Task: inverse folding
């Protein structure tokens, strides 16, 4: 339960103080009929999560446990948990069960303990026991015969939920690791263990006797839904019958951001990829039949409007749309008997965790300001009844009404474009976004959204205030603030309109308040645009166009084709050996250990002797040996050819040699004015200049970059730009207009600078092990930690992840280096 995705931040510091100081209160209905029933917030320094259990909302954070009445938000009880660390939790039957860890002189001591859901009093506690992997549900008030715990002796223990006593134990087969996940309901308990392969074991929850075992190619997570085991792997989700482990339907293609299936009435709602679109199906748990399909077709930008969360109650389900940058949450109402009834934007932010009757319950992790503790914010929103003539109790009455269209001011008319600025609409309805890009490629985005009324807009404006802290801004609309990393966004409200101006580029940050003020001033003059926001509809399922998946030989790394077609995998380096992909898609070892491949994947250079290099044209197989100065090394590529550094000694470069790979000719340059040069020479720009980092004597200032022409003469310098990112083959972006350095004094910071002049354009803060290269001019490919393993993520200039190209669950794959090269496919469009 601890890994639910919390997508959006709510409320600023002042709003949090108000929430904690005032009792829960409902707001008057808006023009669209929605009404906020109650709000609450709890300190959550490390973690925080809520779940619906019976008629209660159970809250567990790293600081407190509490139970609220779901109807009005009244707090039934609260208990401090600061005496020990909370590791995980469950809500079975009438209890709240906690897995905790307490420090002791011999190390952390695990314990499993239970509190009464009625009044919070302790029921039982078992020291020395821990959770069995990550606890998965559903346990939301449901009765189970046993809870999965793990003993110090390496056995699974089934605990009586009422007393905590051990009912039975079970030991995994010899050679298996400790559990990764576990889940239970009244009929079955499942536990996932790595036994050479990822394996699911199903046990009788009353006796612990094994029922079945299923080996899977990969397993990232698991759920248990009404007799179905949902197992998520690398690129698909498997649906297994809990009774016997058989597949009840074909594996569901889903690589990234797919919603977990949801149990609704007697079916599972399953979202999957198909032909660039998304298909939601109603799958019967008993036979895997799919009596209907709802298809969300590709949008004008070519992306499927994916649903990130599905919550259900009886025959009604809400499918919340992912990746739409608007205040509130776009949502589709689905009748599980086979109809999509419309899409609307609900006045909530954050992650929905339950839907009961006409009420949606939402949670969000809130950071009031940098350096201040986080909170868990909860909101309950009542959805509109369609009319008094159609009470919800009637069997075929809709529980609430959804609009089908919404007028918005045109964001491409809110700011006057300057000379050379291009405009491009972005996003998908109901988002209204417009990108303004100048001649230098610097971009800012204008967005606008219209709420049902002024009160609704004001409430949402406060909620959207500050994942990273807000700074009030004067004289823009009725209220405004700056938010985001280093104030990368200005958000303002004018009446029922909420608009924002954002940019990942540092040179534009000072202009954002003026641009926002101009946009607010033109809200009344901009022509409205009516967006049809209809959700998925019944229709034929598109032909499958799944992303091709490849496991790199000798590793556990899975790579997928880039969905935008901007890059492809040319090879990978593992344990010092470079393997290159040939025309048949095979990964074959390259000759020798000192091998380099050009960024366009055409040329391969190796070093058969200290004074010769071998250059192979990979398109024809033709090889040529070229004499070079002894010790020349450290290849750097550009459209102008191959650059090698020559060395005076092991540490001191003294020049470079330029090799034309087509003709084999060489041009050696000796550099006499070395001025503290401390690393190899690299191409810069379009191949007319060479860059080398230099260091100030006594290290009193950050390193700089010096630029030389092809005669070795210094033509310019950039002072204090930081160290180069030496692990990537080409520090320059695909357009050669930008280059990458490490931000001085910030080990995890990457700085993007203009090639011409060195102006700092962007500062990227994103955790990474290494930089794999550029994806396009506005995105990098970073090798990042993910759980116990790693992933290759496409990360934008603001630090946001927009795609995952590869991942591995194995810690031993840390040093695998994937080589990406530009593809001939369509270029990736900037992400707003």
Result:
């Amino acid at each position: 339960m601890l890994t639910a995705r919390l997508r959006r931040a709510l409320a600023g510091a002042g709003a949090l103080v108000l929430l904690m100081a005032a009792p829960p209160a409902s707001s008057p209905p808006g023009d669209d009929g929605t009404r906020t029933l109650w709000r609450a917030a709890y300190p959550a320094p490390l973690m925080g999560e809520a779940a619906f259990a019976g008629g209660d909302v159970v809250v567990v954070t790293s600081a407190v446990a509490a139970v609220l009445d779901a109807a009005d938000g009244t707090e039934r009880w609260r208990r401090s948990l600061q005496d020990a660390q909370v590791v995980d939790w469950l809500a079975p039957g009438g209890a709240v069960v906690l897995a905790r860890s307490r420090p002791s002189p011999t190390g952390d001591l695990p314990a499993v303990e239970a509190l009464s859901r009625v009044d919070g009093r302790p029921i039982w506690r078992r020291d020395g026991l821990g959770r069995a992997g990550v606890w998965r549900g559903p346990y939301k008030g449901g009765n189970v015969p046993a809870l999965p715990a793990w003993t110090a002796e390496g056995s699974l223990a089934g605990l009586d939920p009422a007393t905590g006593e051990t009912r039975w134990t079970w030991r995994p087969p010899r050679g298996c690791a400790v559990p990764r996940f576990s889940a239970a309901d009244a009929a079955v308990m499942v536990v996932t263990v790595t036994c050479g392969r990822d394996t699911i074991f199903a046990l009788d929850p009353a006796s612990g006797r094994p029922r079945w075992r299923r080996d899977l190619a990969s397993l990232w997570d698991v759920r248990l839904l009404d007799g179905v085991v949902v197992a998520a792997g690398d690129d698909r989700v498997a649906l297994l019958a809990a009774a016997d482990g058989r597949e009840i339907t074909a594996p569901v293609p889903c690589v990234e951001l797919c919603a977990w299936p949801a149990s609704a009435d007697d079916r599972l709602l399953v979202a999957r990829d198909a032909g660039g679109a998304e298909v939601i199906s109603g799958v019967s748990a008993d036979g895997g039949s799919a009596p209907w399909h709802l298809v969300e077709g590709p949008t004008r930008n070519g992306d499927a409007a994916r649903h990130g969360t599905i919550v259900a109650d009886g025959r009604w389900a809400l499918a919340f749309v992912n990746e739409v940058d608007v205040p509130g949450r776009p949502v589709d109402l689905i009748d599980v008997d086979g109809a999509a009834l419309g899409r609307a934007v609900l006045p909530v932010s954050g992650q929905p965790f339950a839907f009961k009757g006409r009420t949606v319950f939402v949670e969000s992790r809130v950071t009031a300001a940098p350096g201040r503790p986080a909170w868990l914010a909860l909101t309950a929103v009542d959805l509109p009844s369609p009319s008094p003539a159609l009470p919800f109790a009637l069997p075929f009455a809709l529980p609430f009404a959804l609009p089908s269209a919404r007028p918005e001011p045109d964001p491409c008319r809110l700011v006057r474009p300057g000379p050379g600025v291009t405009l491009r609409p972005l996003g998908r309805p109901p988002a209204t976004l417009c990108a303004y890009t100048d001649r230098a490629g610097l971009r800012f985005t204008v967005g606008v959204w219209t709420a049902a009324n002024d009160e609704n807009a004001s409430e949402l404006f406060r909620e959207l205030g500050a994942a990273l802290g807000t700074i009030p801004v004067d004289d823009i609309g009725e209220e405004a603030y700056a938010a985001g990393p280093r104030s990368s966004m200005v958000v303002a409200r004018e009446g029922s309109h909420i608009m924002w101006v954002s940019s990942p580029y540092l040179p534009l940050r000072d202009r954002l308040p003026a641009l926002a003020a101009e946009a607010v001033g033109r809200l009344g003059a901009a022509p409205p645009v009516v967006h049809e926001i209809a959700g998925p509809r019944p229709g034929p399922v598109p032909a499958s166009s799944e992303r091709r998946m490849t496991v790199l030989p000798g590793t556990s790394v899975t790579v997928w084709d880039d969905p935008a077609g901007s890059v492809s995998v040319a090879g990978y380096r593992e344990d010092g050996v470079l393997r290159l992909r040939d025309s048949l898609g095979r990964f074959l070892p390259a000759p020798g250990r000192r091998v380099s491949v050009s960024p366009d994947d055409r040329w391969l250079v190796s070093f058969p002797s200290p004074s010769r290099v071998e250059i192979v044209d990979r398109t024809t197989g033709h090889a040529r040996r070229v004499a070079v100065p002894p010790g020349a090394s450290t290849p750097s590529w550009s459209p102008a050819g191959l650059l090698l550094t020559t060395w005076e000694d092991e540490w001191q470069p003294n020049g470079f040699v330029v090799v034309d790979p087509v003709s084999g000719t060489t041009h050696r340059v000796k550099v006499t004015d070395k001025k503290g040069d401390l690393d190899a020479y690299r191409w810069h720009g379009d191949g007319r200049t060479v860059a080398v980092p230099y260091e100030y004597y006594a290290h009193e200032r950050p390193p700089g970059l010096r630029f030389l022409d092809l005669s070795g003469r210094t033509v310019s310098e950039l002072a204090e730009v930081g160290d180069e990112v030496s692990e990537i083959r080409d520090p320059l972006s695909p357009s050669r207009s930008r280059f990458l350095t490490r931000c001085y004094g910030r080990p995890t910071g990457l700085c993007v600078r203009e090639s011409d002049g060195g102006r700092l354009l962007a500062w990227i803060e994103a955790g990474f092990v290494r930089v794999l290269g550029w994806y396009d001019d506005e995105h990098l490919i970073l090798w990042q930690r993910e759980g116990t393993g790693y992933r290759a993520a496409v990360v934008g200039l603001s630090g946001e992840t927009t795609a995952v190209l590869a991942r591995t669950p194995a810690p031993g794959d840390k040093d695998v280096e994937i080589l990406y090269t530009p593809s001939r496919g369509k270029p990736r469009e900037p992400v707003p």
Notes: The longest strand covers residues 35-43. The CA atoms of residues 307 and 321 lie 4 Å apart. The chain has a mean pLDDT of 80. The chain has three helices and 68 strands.
